[in-house]
Design a protein that fits this description.
five-stranded mixed sheet; 50 strands; 968 residues; 4 helices
């Protein structure tokens, strides 16, 4: 995995060969821009930096670029890892690699990714601690191997000719083409990857072959990449977030069965009887002193603290092909093909004190236990308690606690297809016509998902202690969790969950662009784009309640169908219950014949959609977008040798949306929506000198809401209390904003740059996810979708989507890049790249589903106020090495954390360090060593701005790659 080439530099003589050529419409570099510097031929990493910096310098818009060092030799193993080196871009890692990007404070749904000129969406699933199934508009950069790409160009400002749909940036991914490197070209590379956490090794292979024929008038390029890896992520997590102590009907009071009134108005005000079984001894209920400390307003308790291990076995295959023909000197025809298959086989192994997250019990026909015995938090007795000054529980001792161990197995495959044909025809000596038609599809198939639980009821002396280790709290269950005799498989309480899901995204794109050179200074452009996008989500689950499970067969014990797990790589406190058993899913599926999808002697294992909680995930959106534009490009010579260049134009965007979804007990609902946007845009670049450029840009921009928001129906989960439901909103308006940008760039040396940029985004329309806590019946949800053991008065979280008024995003970027050629001796082979981004954002968030209700002014989610990247590199004719650091401040992830509460959840700051070395044994053979995440940076999320309860603390460990590359 050669290291990276991230662009933020101009300045390279025209004679410098580019690792990846600038886009066809980018002007050739002007030798005078280098002040008449002598020709210097460079290769490798410096070459890629120089070619990328030329793209930035010559563009009329604010852009950054990343170019391959050579054919089939892109910088990082993952595209997102490369993109984070660009000023203003941050990534969030999941399972040890970058998947989505945030550009200048705006996440993946606010930025468009174009794959060989076509807008692209890729749906995958991530770890249970990170991303779920991507049902939005973002592109998952983990789908493709980086070796398949030739260049990435990030457009940070908008022009009329660039397709609408982005508030943040438009990212152009370009695979290799034969005319990039005429003649015969071929390269192969192989790497062995080693992952210390989990002690696994895996291969990574890539190759490319390209040939041009008939005096370079026809060419063919084919490339492929294959990799496998096994990711292990060990974690402490409280993914359900902490909440008020009186949630789920509160803890057992001092007198069991006595009436209890909630102490937090957001929970309720009506008294209720406690569902608590009296314990023997001096205190049949909670200990008075401890209960009185806990049962106070604004005291928060973790809802689902526990330890876990996530294992993801990944297999990635990518293939690209490109055919180019130049039948005449005035005609260029390009056909691009791409295919990717990304297979994941996942296990999530976890344990937690489940009763903290459960309320009153409900007797059911599947269980011999009473309602009180099935109760969760209401039957827990508090024996000792301590909260910090912010009201977060940091220590507690509880009796009658129920525990759970879980094993889930998930298999999924994402296949991505794309083909397009691109024709460019000169029209006379001044005109040029470009036609593009293409189709793409991202097909996510999750045919197998199983989950099984074991339980332990009414354990005493459960200890939670975060006083000395807040990131990894001490959890001691008070019994040996590795002893199978301490666990049960309880019908009516434990679960066998089955479901399967599909998410299909399909694009059709037709574009026509015409430009005409009116004069040496003016070029008129006009064009039109038609896009048809379809999104289909399908899901099936068990048609009976997940807790409808059989008794274990005679002669079968928990020991026969379990295995042991030890969480030992995240520094848990000594004495923690870090070793435990989990169900063996494969044995249990075989024993009960679960995978038959039938009714057998053990139960009903059929799957269905309508009339189950899965029906809301069966939805679709068809979107048709039509957007013509007109633009004028200009370039004027000014006095004192200055040059003013840029563009101005207007794009009109018409959006037509047709969505479907289910409500109630399987009633199909349809909705239609149209809206229009007029989007003016202008970019100015003033070349004050050949080395100094000032920029200014302004544009109105829009981004359409996430597809998962637009269903007229809703999805419901009733597997356990608290229940949850997500209700769509097909009438959402798009995000809208006005962007203003200014920048100064100084190209003071060949391959060097110093720049400063300011950006302002006035977001006038925003889309917010809002969650309201109520009861199932009060929410008006169909009682028919509740399981037999369901409680209509059970706590239910309702999530919906509303338009809000938005806010402002302001920020600046500083970037410096320079090869140290001015230094003597071997020091001249060093170079450095540093950038820093500061973002200040203020968004108005509503706290309830009432848009005119209370609001909270807070930063935009996923935005780090400060982020920085630095790379120190060395490169001579044989040896190349570099070390890179990426830092981002803590940032918000959820606003608000619960309905009506002006509080947030977020992520702690992170620092990732990567390194790479290569040595050229011959002109054709290069050996390499790469290391990622050298500091074993954890993923660390918090809950509550002042409370800072640990929501997730996980590690995936370092990654090492040893490889060789041969160029023919």
């Amino acid at each position: 995995m050669p290291a990276a080439a991230w662009a933020a530099d101009p300045a390279a003589p025209a004679a410098v060969p580019a690792a990846a050529p600038a886009p066809a419409d980018a002007p050739a570099p002007d030798a005078t821009a280098q002040g008449g510097a002598p020709e210097i031929v460079v290769t490798g990493f410096r070459q890629s930096l120089q070619s990328a910096i030329r793209i930035k310098q010559k563009s009329a818009e604010v852009v950054d670029a990343i170019n391959a060092q050579d054919i089939a030799a892109f910088p990082d193993a993952n595209l997102a890892d490369s993109l984070q080196r660009i000023p203003g871009i941050s990534i969030e890692r999941d399972g040890g690699e970058g998947r989505n990007i945030t550009v200048r404070g705006l996440g993946g749904d606010f930025s468009r990714t174009r794959f060989n000129g076509l807008e692209a969406i890729a749906a995958t699933t991530g770890s249970t601690l990170g991303s779920g199934i991507n049902k939005g508009r973002s592109f998952d950069y983990s789908v493709f191997a980086s070796e398949l790409f030739n260049s990435i160009v990030v457009h940070k400002t908008q022009s009329a000719e660039v397709d609408e749909g982005s508030l943040g940036a438009t990212v152009d991914l370009q695979t290799g083409r034969p005319f990039d490197h005429p003649g015969f070209q071929a390269a192969i590379s192989g790497q062995g990857a080693y992952y210390p956490m989990g002690k696994s090794a895996a291969p990574r292979l890539a190759g490319l072959i390209s040939k041009t024929f008939f005096d370079d008038r026809f060419g063919v390029l084919i490339s492929a990449a294959y990799s496998k890896r096994r990711v292990q992520e060990d974690a402490y997590s409280d993914t359900s977030l902490a909440d008020f102590s009186d949630l789920n009907n509160g803890f057992c009071p001092v007198v069991p069965g006595s009436m209890v009134t909630p102490v937090n108005p957001l929970i309720g005000t009506a008294p209720h009887a406690s569902q608590c079984i009296a314990a023997p001894g001096e205190f049949p209920g909670s200990t008075p002193d401890a209960y009185n400390k806990l049962n106070q307003p604004n005291i928060f308790v973790p809802r689902l603290p526990g330890y876990g291990r996530f294992i993801d076995r990944e297999e990635r295959l990518g293939v690209t092909a490109s055919f180019q023909a130049r039948p005449t000197d005035h005609t260029l025809i390009t056909v691009d093909l791409a295919y990717s298959r990304y297979h994941q086989n996942q296990n999530d192994l976890a344990t937690n004190p489940i009763s903290l997250n459960r309320g009153n019990g409900t007797a059911n026909a599947n269980s011999t236990l009473t309602a009180a015995q099935l109760a969760g938090r209401p039957n827990m007795k508090v024996r000792d308690f301590e909260a910090n000054d912010a009201g977060e529980m940091v220590y507690g001792v509880f009796d009658d606690t129920d525990f759970s161990v879980t094993n889930s197995k998930n298999k999924s495959t994402t296949q991505f297809y794309q083909w397009n044909i691109n024709a460019t025809q000169d029209v006379g000596s001044r005109g040029k016509l470009k036609l593009l038609y293409g189709q793409s599809a991202s097909l996510f198939n999750n045919p197998y998902s199983r989950l099984v639980t074991f339980s332990r009821f009414d354990g005493d002396n459960f200890v939670y202690d975060a006083r000395n280790s807040p990131h990894t709290p001490y959890l001691n269950y008070g019994f040996d969790a590795t002893d199978p005799n301490n666990w049960a498989f309880q019908p009516g309480y434990d679960s066998i969950r089955e479901y399967k899901a599909r998410v299909n995204n399909r694009f059709r794109d037709l574009k026509a662009d015409f430009e005409y050179q009116l004069s040496d200074a003016l070029t008129a452009k006009a064009g039109i784009t038609y896009k048809r996008f379809s999104f289909v989500s399908k899901r099936e689950q068990r048609i009976v309640d997940n807790t409808t499970i059989p008794q274990l067969p005679a002669g079968t014990s928990i020991a026969d169908i379990s295995s042991r797990v030890s969480i030992d790589d995240i520094g848990l406190p000594s004495g923690s219950t870090s070793s435990f058993i989990v169900p063996n899913i494969d044995k249990i599926m075989d024993m009960f014949g679960v995978d038959c999808g039938c009714v057998n002697q053990y139960g009903d294992w059929r799957l269905g959609s309508l009339g189950t909680g899965a029906q809301g995930d069966n939805r679709s959106v068809i979107e048709r977008d039509l957007s013509p534009y007109a633009q004028l490009d200009f370039k004027f010579d000014l006095p004192y040798g200055m040059v003013l260049r840029g563009n101005g134009g207007l794009r009109y965007a018409h959006t037509n949306q047709h969505s479907t979804g289910y409500v109630g007990n399987g009633v199909l609902t349809k909705a239609r929506r149209n809206y229009d946007d007029f989007l003016p845009a202008g970019n100015l670049a003033l070349d004050i000198t050949p080395k100094l450029t000032a920029r200014f840009a302004v544009a109105k921009v829009m981004s359409r809401p996430s597809l998962s928001y637009l269903t007229p129906g809703g999805s419901i989960s009733t597997s356990q209390v608290p229940y949850s439901a997500t209700v769509g909103n097909p009438n959402l308006d798009p995000y809208r904003a006005t962007n203003i940008d200014a920048a100064v760039e100084w190209y003071f040396q060949t391959g060097a740059m110093l720049s400063a940029a300011y950006f302002h985004k006035k977001v006038s329309n925003f889309v917010q996810q809002v969650t309201q806590t109520t009861t199932y019946s009060a929410a008006g949800l169909p009682v028919s979708l509740l399981p037999a053991s369901g409680d209509p008065n059970g706590t239910t979280n309702i999530t919906s989507y509303e338009n809000t008024k938005g806010g402002n995003i302001d920020g600046f970027e500083l970037a410096w890049q320079q090869p140290f050629t001015f230094l003597p001796g071997f020091l001249k082979h060093f170079g450095g790249i540093v950038n820093y981004t500061h973002i200040h954002s203020k968004i108005s968030y509503i706290l309830t589903t009432n848009a005119s209700g209370p609001t909270l002014i807070a930063p935009l989610i996923n935005v780090s106020p400060n982020s920085a990247n630095a790379t120190l590199y060395y490169e001579d004719a044989k040896f190349s090495a570099r070390v890179s650091l990426a830092y981002r401040d803590q940032y918000l992830r959820i606003v608000p954390v619960r309905a009506g509460l002006a509080d947030t959840a977020g992520a702690f700051s992170s620092t990732n360090v990567d390194a790479s070395m290569s040595y050229k044994l011959t002109d054709k053979l290069t050996l390499s060593v790469d290391a990622l995440n050298l500091t074993n940076q954890p993923t660390s999320y918090w809950d509550g701005e002042d409370r800072q309860d640990q929501q997730v603390y996980s590690k995936t460990g370092q990654q090492f790659f040893f490889g060789a590359r041969y160029k023919f």
